[in-house]
Every structure is written in structure tokens, then in C-alpha cells.
Amino acid sequence: MALRRHMKNFVKNYSDSEIKVREATSNDPWGPSSSLMLEISDLTYNTVSLLEIMNMIWHRMNDQGKNWRHVYKSLTLLDYLIKNGSKKVIQHCREGLFNIQTLKDFHYIDEAGKDQGKCSLPRPVN
Questions:
Q1: How far apart are CA 108 and CA 92, in angstroms?
Q2: Where is the ENTH domain positioned along the sequence (predicted)?
Q3: How many other C-beta atoms lie within 10 A of the C-beta of residue 35?
Q4: In 3-state terms, what secondary structure has residue 106?
Q5: What is the pLDDT of residues 8-22, one digit of tens each?
Q6: Buried (b) or exposed (e) across 37-75, using 16+ Cβ within 10 A?
Q7: How far apart are CA 21 and CA 112, in angstroms?
Q8: With contact defined as beta carbons under 8 Å apart, do 31 and 76 qualify?
Q9: H or E stretch covering 18
Q10: Quick one: pLDDT at residue 100?
Q11: % of the chain exceeding 90 in pLDDT
């Protein structure tokens, strides 16, 4: 899988920032490393890198089906960037709020019958 990802990065001519986001949001069955998320958050202080990072996050967040980990890890990375990256990340999130809101309806049931898209957050009390 790593070779395939490396080849795709090369063929599509992804920047270093985009490659790091793709690695952090991969389909591998483990979460993104804190050191990789730190590297990405540092890159958000560069205007060009910030745009590349956010565009790749929005792209990965729109994946569906068997790529549910792209969505989950994009949200994990986005949460980290909001807390540790440039303040402009928050501005991009406000502008892309629709992308996040569409995930309310996300669902994916894996081969074992487990709903991987089920929201485990508590519902607000009215």
C-alpha cells in the first residue's frame, strides 16, 4: 500500500504538504501520528501550504464507503489543526462549514456488519 501511495503522490505531483495530509488521513488501520500532525500544523503558518492542506482535507473528507478512514482521520487532523495550527485554519473551517455539516448523514457498514460511520458523540440536552 505504501508503494502505491508513493507512486500516486509522484504521478499526481502532490506537494510535500499534500503528501503529509494524505499520509495522516490514509486508510491504514491506525490513527495519524502526533509528530506528523505537528509537522502539518507548523505548515499551516505558510499561506500556500495552508491552502494545499485545507484543500486536501476537504477532498479526503468527501470520500465515502470503504474509504471511511479518510473521513474519520480528516476530522481528527482538522481538530488538531484548529487547536494547534494557524488561526487561519479556523477561518477556512468557517468557510467550509458545509463540508463538515454534510457528515451528519455519513454512514458505512463494513464487512463484519459494524457501522463505522455511527456517531458516538452524546446528543445535546435541550
A1: 27
A2: 9-126
A3: 8
A4: coil
A5: 888 888 999 999 999
A6: beebbebbeeeebbebbbebbbbbbebeeeebbbbbbbb
A7: 28
A8: yes
A9: helix 16-24
A10: 81
A11: 53
